[in-house]
Design a protein that fits this description.
The complex is a heterodimer of chains A (about 375) and B (about 450). Chain A has about 375 residues and is an all-alpha fold. Chain A contains 17 helices and 1 strand. The relative contact order of chain A is 0.09. Classes of the chains: A mainly alpha (about 375), B alpha/beta (about 450). At the A-B interface, helix 2, strand 1, helix 3 and helix 17 of A face strand 20, helix 10 and helix 11 of B.
């Protein structure tokens, strides 16, 4: 460890203050701090600090994403093999999926991190760790057969327009990963919807086709999956969104570590369940009479509410606000699904919509505190004059 | 003892750190020099009354405040003014007095002080140099002698890490404490609020002529801002005064003898020394004679005037601050940690976050050091500040208002009700390593300059 440290220190010398490559220090620091937590000590304020930092936080989110990702990789192969009726093992399915998905992850990281590093050098700040999560989320919510260049362009759009244009990490209004998906959804609709995109190779092999459950409901077809299949995720859909089971495992990790807000997740489930029940009572079309319990386990709802809606930067920031925000995401998700057959997948639009309204929710929550303080002041004034 | 309010705090954290002071007194260290640092008196610009080389008696004025010449600062010892250290733009940083072997006092007429009225008490407190023992809220500056405060608060229960136990420190000073309280009662229209530990009020339950309230719960339960918000909330224009428990005793002793009392009991704490315990000394004493009896156990350590959350780092040649009852010595943490960002790794580092199992282990306390455990980042994680901030204030929103210097917003969000120490745990716990106390400090300075 000491030898490695010494080697790193000598490598870093040209990047030090006053040296030739000083400008590029953020880039080399980003690598260095991934090997070692730096020897920086407290200079002002509290003299001791918690062991948690942004790196640890983001890595925890990645760990929470892994179960859904691994299942998603497997499910990609599984959907392909059962349609082609070839015999296959778990490993076959996994390798088939990995062959498709790993390149997408690489593209997303390379494109996104290059932009992040560029901005860090340009603005002279350290590279923020937020993109480690965003970069993994983007491929996880795409259809499996989307061309890699589209992944690249969506990623670039999301990082540039949704994040850096607002000032970088911590300043963005919209969730960057969802922005990438929304961009792809509206820019390349033929690659993002229909019955030829959700199963691997569906567009090239005639025998394969597959509609998402919400898609077939919107088209008025029957659903041929049981609730158990929907829950465990052996259904067509975006890569990692299908398995509510493994998303729930991720949710437990996030809630246990305190990194994902349990208020938003619980609020979202309550909102969606209540809205689903109301529509069940109404029951005017296939989507309305689709059981509210099924609504919770199909499509991207679970994945969205656990990993997207809980993004602390774009969500509401006050505790009360988080409840309201979560509940509204749930309500709008089901509402968009049911009322808008063109967008059966409502959760993306619901979260983006609530991202926009999150500051407004916080504004009212904080204002309640402000007016309480004002009232106290006014009543004290009255007491004085009386 | 009738308790008018039980303050119970739930949100917060008791940092379980090694190195708490054992309840015994160490040898009283002999200090050859004593120092006053104008920076200890937040918001005061000093105007010197003595020059280098002049003689000074205990209780003789050394400088006064330019803003309010009535507020005088007196020497804690008899001796010679050795050096006046100046910093940039000739700012006075430290006045060092070398103490003489025989002590001479400035004596004040305090006979029958019980009959004094409010103005007489104020005058004598100001002239005798006892006034700087009284602070005001908002802002935590020295009290303005022209004000009559809404209330005066004395809290005998600290919850900050390794905090001193005032029941132990003041065990033999009950009568002086009672006298001090009665002096303070003359300055205010309602009796002094006296806060005690709910589980162990100790000697303070015998104190009369006060409004007792009790405090329980984790840090920052002992912080006065919380007590004031509960019992006498600060509105715009309100003033509340606060006095440290040992300074109540110093005031009481002054009114008994007429001589300025600079008593200071220090809890010497921290995990970088052996046998943490208490010592009795005077305001502004040298630190290195104190440390001589406490072998530092690590080669690189940091001396902190105060506690690990709110204190100031000082050198070994430094002197005690004017107000702190505690010094903390902890090891420096200037070392690298491989893959330190992995969750659930390094469980030996105290963490409030559940990304570490640290709280399951180390029941006997944690060894701490000064490593930042990461780097400063943009504010990303939300909700973590509220977990350690029990006041009815939105901490992150207030911090942001201070950062953009939006005075109206700061006012609306409660800047009058806080002082930097309330954000000590936020400094400690926040993921982005934001310097919350510094931001609040700058916010308060802005308020003083713009609003006053």
């Amino acid at each position: 460890m000491n030898a490695l440290r010494k080697r790193l220190d000598s490598l870093k010398r040209p990047f030090e203050k006053g040296q030739k490559l000083e400008k590029f220090a953020p880039a080399i620091n980003a690598f260095d701090t991934f090997l070692f937590v730096p020897n920086h000590t407290t200079k002002k304020g509290a003299h001791i600090r918690d062991a948690v930092d942004l790196k640890r936080t983001m890595v925890t989110v990645i760990i929470a994403l892994l179960p859904a990702l691994i299942y998603g990789i497997y499910n990609t192969g599984y959907q392909y093999y059962i349609q082609t009726a070839e015999p296959f093992t778990f490993m076959d399915a996994f390798i088939h999926g990995a062959w498709k998905i790993v390149p997408m992850i690489i593209v997303s990281y390379v494109v996104g991190l290059s932009i992040e590093f560029g901005f860090a050098v340009y603005r002279g700040h350290e590279v923020n760790e937020g993109y480690l999560v965003t970069g993994l989320l983007i491929p996880m919510i795409m259809p499996v057969d989307i061309p890699l260049w589209m992944v690249g362009i969506s990623t670039a759009f999301a990082v540039l327009i949704a994040k850096e244009a607002f000032g970088g990490t911590g300043m963005n209004i919209l969730n960057p990963a969802l922005t990438a998906r929304a961009f792809a959804f509206f820019a390349y609709p033929t690659y993002m919807s229909g019955n030829k995109v959700w199963v691997s190779e569906a567009s090239s092999v005639d025998a394969i086709s597959g509609e998402t459950i919400l898609g077939s409901l919107a088209a008025g077809q029957d659903v041929k999956y049981s609730m158990l299949e929907m829950f465990q995720g052996s259904i067509p859909g975006s890569i990692a969104e299908t398995s509510t089971l493994w998303v729930a495992v991720g949710a437990l990790i996030l809630i246990f570590t305190g990194i994902g807000s349990w208020r938003i997740i619980t609020g979202g489930i309550i909102g969606a369940a209540v809205m689903g029940m109301l529509f069940n009572l109404w029951g005017a079309n296939a989507l309305m009479s689709f059981s509210w319990m099924n609504h919770l386990v199909v499509g991207g709802f679970a994945f969205g509410i656990v990993f997207m809606a809980t993004d602390p930067v774009s969500a509401a920031q006050t505790n009360k606000g988080k409840w309201i925000y979560g509940i509204l995401v749930g309500i709008f998700c089901i509402m968009i699904r049911v009322f808008n057959p063109a967008y059966p997948e409502g959760v993306m639009l619901a979260i983006l919509l609530m991202n926009v309204f999150a500051p407004t929710i916080d504004h009212y929550v904080v204002n309640a505190n402000i007016s309480k303080r004002k009232k106290r002041w006014i009543s004290a004034q009255e007491l004085k004059t009386a | 003892m009738e308790i008018i309010k039980k303050i119970q705090i739930r949100r917060g954290a008791q940092l379980n750190i090694k190195g708490g002071a054992e309840k015994i007194f160490g040898r009283t260290p002999s200090s050859s020099t004593f120092a006053l640092k104008p920076d200890d008196f937040f918001g005061t610009i000093p105007k010197l009354l003595k020059k280098e080389g002049e003689k000074i008696k205990t209780g003789e004025p050394l400088f006064y405040s330019k803003k309010d010449p009535r507020i005088q600062f007196v020497s804690p010892v008899t001796g010679l003014i050795q050096t006046i250290q100046r910093g940039a733009r000739r700012k006075i940083e430290k006045i060092i007095i070398s103490s003489a072997s025989t002590e001479e006092f400035v004596k004040h007429e305090v006979l029958n002080w019980q009959q004094f009225d409010r103005d007489q008490i104020k005058t004598i407190l100001l002239e005798s140099g006892n006034w700087p023992f009284i602070h005001q809220r908002p802002y935590g500056t020295l009290a303005n002698p022209s004000d009559t405060p809404k209330a005066i608060f004395v809290s005998t229960h600290r919850t900050s890490p390794l905090s001193p136990d005032f029941d132990f420190i003041l065990k033999e000073e009950t009568t002086s404490f009672q006298d001090g309280i009665e002096v303070l009662n003359k300055l205010v229209d309602q009796k002094v609020f006296l806060g005690t530990d709910a589980s162990f009020p100790g000697i303070f339950q015998t104190i009369k002529e006060v409004q007792h309230y009790s405090i329980s719960g984790p840090h920052p339960a002992g912080n006065l801002s919380i007590h004031i918000q509960e019992l006498a909330p600060l509105n715009m224009g309100d003033r509340v005064w606060t006095v440290n428990p040992e300074d109540v005793v110093n005031i009481g002793r002054f009114f008994k003898s007429g001589k300025f009392s600079p008593k200071r009991t220090i809890a010497v704490t921290g995990n970088a020394i052996e046998q943490a315990r208490y010592v009795r000394t005077k305001i502004g004493a040298e630190i290195h004679p104190i440390l001589k009896d406490f072998n530092p156990v690590s080669s690189q350590y940091r001396i902190i005037n105060g506690d690990v959350l709110t204190g100031t780092a000082v050198s070994e040649q430094a002197h005690l601050g004017y107000y702190n009852n505690q010094i903390t010595i902890i090891p420096e943490g200037n070392k690298f940690r491989m893959f330190g960002w992995l969750p659930f790794k390094d469980n030996g580092i105290l963490s409030l976050s559940n990304t570490s199992f640290s709280r399951l282990f180390n029941k006997n306390g944690f060894d701490v050091d000064t490593n930042l455990n990461g780097e400063e980042r943009a504010l990303v994680v939300t909700g973590e500040m509220e977990k350690v901030f029990p006041m009815d204030i939105f901490p992150m929103q207030l911090l942001k208002a201070c950062m953009i210097e939006d005075i109206e917003k700061m006012e609306a969000l409660g800047i009058y009700e806080v002082v930097p120490e309330d954000f000590g745990l936020i400094d400690y716990a926040n993921t982005s390593k934001i310097e919350a106390q510094e931001i609040i400090q700058q916010g308060i300075e802005l308020m003083i300059n713009e609003v006053g």
